[in-house]
Amino acid sequence: MTKGIFITGTDTCIGKTVISGALAIALKEMGYDVGVMKPIETGCRRSGKKLIPSDAIFLKKTSGSRDSLDLINPYRFKRPLAPAVASELEGVKIDISRILRSFELLKKRHDIVIVEGAGGILVPINKDYFFLDLIRDMGIPIIIVARPGLGTINHTLLTIRCAREHGIPVIGFIINHSNRSKPDPSEVTNPLVIKRLSNIPLIGVFPFIPDLKGEPQKLRKINLCKILDISLFVP
C-alpha cells in the first residue's frame, strides 16, 4: 500500500476536503493509522493575529489526528488566491523543503497520509512550481475529485491527461455532489463515460450531505465503504 495519497480536484470548491475526511475515516475504520495534511491553505479567516485554516482543522477533526496543526498545515494565507499569488501579496516565501519535511515526518508516524491540495494540479505554488511538481516530489499517486454535471468529462479527462504526461499515477476519480442542485441528465452518464474514455477506475459517487463542513461527525454515520471502493488502493 502506498504511504500517501494526494487528493486533487478538477476545480476549486469541488469538495476535496470532505472527500479527504471521508477517506481518512474509512481507512481508520479498516484499522489503518491515518495521517492528514493540507500543505497550503488560502482564504483563511483571521482571528486576532492568527489565521484559521478551516480545511486543515476539518481534516484534523475527522481523522482524529494528534499531530500539530502546523505540521498538518505548514502554510496558510488570508487571501483566497492561488498560493503563488497569495504568498507574493502577503510577503511570505513558500519553502517547498519545509512542506516535504512535514510530509516525511507524517509518513513515519502513520500507515498512510491523506494529502489535500488546493484547486487542481496546475495551480501554482511558486513562480515555476505547481502542485503537480509537489505531487511528484512526494512520490505519491492521486485521486481526482470531480463535479457531477455538464462539463465534468472535459475537466476530468484534462486532469487525467496532465497527470499521465507528468508521470503521476492516478488511482481513480470520485464524483462529488458538493452542492444541492437541480438534477442534470448528464450526471447519470458522466461517471461511466469518464471511466470508459480514461480507463481510470471510478472510486465512487458521493452524495450531497448538508452541513458536512460544519458538522464533520456526520461523516462517521455514513457507510463510507459502501459509497467508496477503498479496495482499489488498500489490501
Features:
single chain, 235 residues, alpha/beta, 6-stranded parallel β-sheet, two-stranded parallel ribbon, 12 strands, 38% helix, globular
Please tell me about this protein's structure.
This protein is α/β, with parallel strands linked by helices. It has 9 helices and 12 strands. It has helices at 16-29, 54-63, 69-72, 83-90, 96-109, 131-138, 152-165, 186-198, 224-227, and strands at residues 4-9, 34-37, 40-41, 45-47, 50-52, 75-76, 112-116, 124-126, 129-130, 142-146, 170-176, 202-206. It has a 6-stranded parallel beta sheet, sandwiched between helices. Strand 8 and strand 9 (129-130) form a beta hairpin. It is globular and about 45 Å long. 43% of the residues are buried.
Indicate the topology.
Layout: E1 4-9, H1 16-29, E2 34-37, E3 40-41, E4 45-47, E5 50-52, H2 54-63, H3 69-72, E6 75-76, H4 83-90, H5 96-109, E7 112-116, E8 124-126, E9 129-130, H6 131-138, E10 142-146, H7 152-165, E11 170-176, H8 186-198, E12 202-206, H9 224-227
Parallel strand pairs: 1-7, 1-10, 2-7, 3-6, 10-11, 11-12
Antiparallel strand pairs: 4-5, 8-9
Helix pairs in contact: 1-2, 7-8
